[in-house]
């Protein structure tokens, strides 16, 4: 996965364009502009289509010229941003609001204790804590900065607790690289075991790389192959394997560990070059699962195999196939001999099918299709718990084992559903819920009584959204499709077309931006601003069909849906083109890049955050081949033609008045190469005649944003918001 961030419509009258151009904010004259990026002519003929790419030279690995370009551009950007009068005060505001409460996420329950990752006020990185009981004093287990050298920021990428609660296997990476080293901690003593295994990619949500054996004597881990200096860069994420490591092993580096699943391990479970191999276990199951996935995500599973756990522990698994690509698996849960799978087969918003691993009965549908979009599963002791959403708002269903009787939890409010956590040794389920104006909290659903109570695991933040409202509206896209749009604003904001408005969009992998509570939105809202989120096709707001309506050949819908949302905000007087900004990050770079290219008149400014704005060249980066399933293969026809359509770089034209742009990248980004963002910025600087700034911001101690420290995030948000306030004409942010 690249990651995530915050129809043809009539052009505006020429008079409006001209008046906006006259008011275009420019850089202070005292700051000399950096020299333009060198242009080296390059035109290729791809399947009959000429493609001009005069900045292809930036792609050369280790290019000193590109490094020099980034350095001088970033230096200029820093001087320009520092000259914005209200920027420092805005930073202090955002910093204050980022520290009004404790974030609690990635919760695990084991041995009657509660483990969680959290960021408390004043803390800069997520730490790992353990609680003996709710209301007790949390004990710090892991501060990732203890592994830092030279003050390089470190991130806790993942952690997995052994079933007996005695050990934690975890991974830490530095500088946003996401390339973690696996270590194991003794929970009782806080000491590290003599284990250190490198090349362990993944996280504890979409792609868990560690699976403990139920007896806690060892674990299976996912590992990338050893990448050599002469290997093609596109091989980096290929040929993964899963290895068995026993705590009793004398070698803690993994050198003597035996592969049990993955690339060329078992003829019974053949793996393709582009797949990822993952092994999963469950506390009360005598089976282990072997999964082949696409792009390190459990929402795109090609094949599921099973083996007896006893055979796996002996290092001789016997894999047999349970379900294949035709099932289109998008999630699963394992309990005993039962495997429940989310599938869109005959169910555009998904259904749940149950498989008997022992083979004594045929697969059966246990949660039929409905208007609800099924998003997640969790296996409890007595029942399967199903996370779902309706128009983006979370729901919880309970399916009793044995009878498959279904009941529903009464949700405490309408909000976005996060992690659902079933206790394998107890009844009920915990779940995380948040609203646009309602703080995040962890709730406990007790099926015996039907009660839903706040666990108080997360303390309410010391901030009020009493003066804030949210609205759910729908915009008409180019083909008549109604696009959901969430709007957040102060109750006192007038709909006079003058409010500085930030429209955010993503639209890939079926990912949904469900409601979340963000105190750091307050500085924007306090300055009279509006924040809107466009739930465009390519995302998952309405399930699998919504996703597929914005991927590959239909990807351009994502861009046009975003444009439709922006036009809605203008037509309904929330804002106007002179006060409207757009933002897209990661795969959302396709969204914002395309919107800027197709409708430059609709936006005064835009943020391209680590964005895939050069989709034609993504294929040739390390993270290119894993993303073929979502975007296609540019080396194949007709894939090339739809990738060409979604490539923002290919549609930038000379002599056009483009919006102001702040392009953001991290030097260590493992998902979207910095040269994608750099090329986009260079092309716009050369092409635009609006007089508006195109800036390139480079962070040299971060990557894609995953693992960034709180202060890095706050500083980046302050830079972005101050830049937008300046460009959207907000008083107090206009340089003299």
UniProtKB/TrEMBL annotation:
SUPFAM superfamilies: alpha/beta-Hydrolases, Peptidase/esterase 'gauge' domain. GO terms for biological process: proteolysis. It comes from the Bacteria. Gene3D superfamilies: alpha/beta hydrolase, Prolyl oligopeptidase, N-terminal domain. InterPro entries: AB_hydrolase_fold, Pept_S9A_N, Peptidase_S9_cat, Peptidase_S9A, Prolyl_oligopep/macrocyclase. It catalyses: Hydrolysis of Pro-|-Xaa >> Ala-|-Xaa in oligopeptides. One of its GO terms (cellular component) is cytosol. Residues 1-23 form the signal peptide. Keywords: Hydrolase, Protease, Serine protease, Signal. Its EC number is 3.4.21.26. Pfam families: Peptidase_S9, Peptidase_S9_N. The keyword Acyltransferase does not apply. GO terms for molecular function: oligopeptidase activity; serine-type endopeptidase activity. Residues 524-729 form the Peptidase S9 prolyl oligopeptidase catalytic domain. Residues 38-453 form the Peptidase S9A N-terminal domain. This is prolyl oligopeptidase. It comes from Acidiphilium rubrum. The lineage of its organism: Bacteria, Pseudomonadati, Pseudomonadota, Alphaproteobacteria, Acetobacterales.
């Amino acid at each position: 996965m690249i990651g995530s961030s915050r129809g043809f419509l009539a052009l505006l009258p020429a008079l409006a364009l001209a008046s906006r151009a006259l008011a275009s904010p420019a850089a202070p004259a005292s700051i000399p502009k950096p020299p333009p990026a060198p242009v080296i002519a390059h035109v290729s003929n791809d399947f009959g289509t000429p493609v001009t790419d005069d900045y292809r030279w930036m792609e050369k690995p280790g290019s000193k010229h590109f490094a020099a370009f980034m350095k001088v551009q970033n230096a200029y950007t820093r001087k320009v941003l520092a000259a914005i009068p209200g920027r420092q005060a805005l930073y202090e505001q955002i910093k204050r609001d980022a520290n009004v409460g404790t974030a609690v996420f990635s919760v695990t329950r084991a041995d009657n204790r509660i483990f969680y990752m959290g960021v408390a006020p004043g803390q800069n990185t997520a730490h790992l804590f353990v609680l003996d009981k709710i209301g007790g004093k949390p004990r710090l287990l892991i501060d990732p900065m203890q592994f830092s050298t030279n003050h390089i920021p470190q991130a806790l990428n993942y952690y997995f607790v052994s079933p007996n609660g005695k050990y934690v296997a975890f991974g830490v990476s530095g500088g946003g690289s996401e390339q973690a080293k696996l270590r194991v901690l003794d929970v009782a003593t806080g000491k590290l075991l003599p284990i250190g295994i490198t090349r362990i990619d993944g996280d504890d949500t979409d792609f868990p790389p560690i699976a403990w054996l139920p007896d806690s004597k060892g674990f299976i881990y996912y590992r990338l192959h050893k990448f050599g200096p002469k290997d093609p860069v596109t091989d980096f994420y290929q040929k993964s394997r899963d290895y068995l490591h026993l705590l009793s092993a004398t070698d803690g580096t993994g050198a003597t560990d035996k592969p049990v699943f993955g690339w060329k391990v078992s003829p019974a479970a053949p793996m393709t070059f582009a797949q990822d191999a993952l092994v999963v276990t469950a506390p009360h199951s005598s089976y282990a699962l072997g999964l082949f996935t696409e792009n390190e995500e459990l929402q795109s599973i090609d094949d599921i195999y099973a083996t007896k756990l006893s055979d796996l522990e002996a290092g001789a698994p016997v894999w047999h196939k349970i379900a294949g690509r035709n099932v289109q698996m998008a999630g699963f849960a394992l309990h005993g001999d039962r495997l429940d799978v989310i599938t869109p087969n005959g169910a555009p918003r998904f259904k749940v099918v149950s498989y008997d691993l022992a083979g004594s009965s045929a697969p059966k549908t246990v949660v039929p299709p409905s208007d609800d979009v099924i998003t997640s599963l969790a296996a409890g002791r007595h029942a399967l718990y199903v996370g779902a959403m309706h128009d983006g708002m979370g729901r919880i269903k309970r399916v009793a084992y044995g009878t498959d009787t279904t009941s529903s939890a009464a949700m405490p409010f309408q909000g976005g559903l996060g992690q659902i956590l079933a206790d394998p040794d107890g009844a009920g389920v915990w779940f995380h819920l948040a609203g646009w104006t309602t703080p995040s909290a962890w709730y406990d659903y007790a099926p015996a009584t039907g009660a839903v109570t706040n666990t108080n695991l997360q303390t309410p933040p010391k901030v009020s959204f009493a003066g804030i409202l949210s609205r759910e509206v729908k915009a008409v896209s180019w083909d008549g499709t109604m696009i959901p749009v969430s709007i957040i604003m102060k109750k006192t904001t007038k709909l006079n077309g003058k409010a500085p408005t930030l429209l955010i969009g993503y639209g890939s992998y079926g990912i949904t931006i469900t409601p979340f509570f963000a105190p750091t939105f307050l500085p924007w809202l306090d300055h009279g601003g509006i924040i809107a989120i466009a739930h465009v096709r390519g995302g998952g707001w309405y399930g699998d069909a919504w996703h597929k309506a914005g991927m590959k050949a239909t990807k351009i819908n994502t861009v046009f849906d975003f444009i439709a949302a922006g036009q809605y905000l203008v037509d309904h007087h929330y804002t106007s083109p002179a006060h409207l900004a757009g933002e897209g990050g990661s795969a959302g770079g396709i969204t914002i890049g395309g919107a800027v290219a197709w409708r430059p008149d609709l936006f005064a400014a835009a943020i391209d955050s680590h964005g895939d704005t050069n989709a034609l060249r993504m294929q040739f980066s390390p993270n290119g081949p894993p993303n073929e399933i979502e975007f296609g293969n540019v080396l194949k026809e007709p894939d090339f033609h739809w990738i060409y359509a979604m490539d923002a770089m290919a549609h930038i034209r000379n002599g056009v008045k483009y919006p102001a742009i702040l392009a953001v990248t991290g030097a260590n980004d493992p998902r979207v190469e910095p040269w994608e963002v750099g090329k986009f910025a260079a092309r716009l600087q050369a092409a635009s005649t609006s007089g508006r700034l195109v800036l390139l911001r480079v962070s040299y101690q971060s990557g894609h944003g995953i693992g960034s420290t709180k202060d890095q995030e706050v500083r980046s948000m302050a830079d972005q918001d101050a830049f937008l306030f300046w460009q959207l004409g907000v008083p107090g942010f206009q340089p003299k």
